[in-house]
Amino acid sequence: MEPTTTEPILYDVHSGIATITLNNPPMNVVTLDMMPALDRALDAVEHDPRVRVIILTGAGDRAFCAGSDVGEFDAFMAPGAVVPKKLWRQYEVFGRLDALAKPTIAALHGYVYGGGLELAVCCDLLVGDEDTLVASPEIKLGVFPSTGGTIRVTRRIGEGRAKQLMFLGTPITARVAHDWGILNYVAPPGESRRVALEVAAVLLERPPVALSYCKQSIDMSFDTSQDDALRRTLPLSDRAFSSAECREGVRAFRARETPRF
After folding, report:
1. Which of 29, 88, 141, 245 pairs as cysteine with 69 (C-beta 3.0–4.6 A)?
2. Is 245 one of the annotated active-site residues of the chain?
């Protein structure tokens, strides 16, 4: 059942899990109006102490997101137009999702094309239904993934597979996407949100501060030399080891109990 509201982004918090829903069915294409709404939702999850895990999904049953709204392209095709009118804002908002300190899960179904894939790979973990199709078809429009896809997707799957995906523009199945490393989990048809909630429930049992530091440390591995990245993780480890979470984890381990983070 599709939402009846016309808001481009839906936001809900329940039991520590925030769900952000792209609400432009049936294809949930990325529009200019969607970016400020998504930015507001990210601001909410960032500053809401109740939120410990974020799930990103799409409304309806046909697509997580089938990419940008090609109907808006006429305004972007003059020299110097697309970056200030479209890409810079998307760059900021997508980057904010990527940089959230809290763990993020994309629950995917149907079409995950173009900007939809670029948005999905800003999340830490990706769950896709078996019927999910993943593609970077921008080349067929005479362009290429322009909101981080050439970087973020390549870091997930490697140069050769990224070039195959982006040069050819043909979709791959959920099983192939899993084998390539785009998807972490393949769910039965229609079950990606349920599986995402199960993963989120596990993350709620993990210490939030340590999760945040772990995420930050992993992300460092792409931003600098290995030696510098390793050195920069040391202060984070110090904070984790000296935290109340660590004390509780060690206590529970020794007591053979489940820790209460």
Report:
1. 29
2. no
pLDDT in the model for residue 1: 45
Whole-model pTM: value is 0.90
Residue 143 burial (CB count, 10 A): 14
Sequence-ordered list of residues with C-beta below 8 angstroms from that of 73, at least 6 positions apart, any chain: 141
Domain ranges of the chain: 9-204, 208-255
Distance CA(133)–CA(128), nearest Å, equals 9
Among candidate residues 7, 92, 130, 138, the one labeled active-site is: 138
One of 118, 198, 245, 248 is an active-site residue; which one?
118
CA distance 166 to 163: 5
pLDDT tens across 191-241, in order? 999 999 999 999 999 999 999 999 999 998 887 777 876 677 778 777 877
66-99 residue pLDDT tens: 999 988 888 888 888 898 889 999 999 999 999 9
Residues 6+ apart with CB under 8 A from 179: none
Amino acid in the structure at residue 160: G
Tell me which CATH code domain 9-204 carries. 3.90.226.10
Please count the residues of the chain. Answer: 261
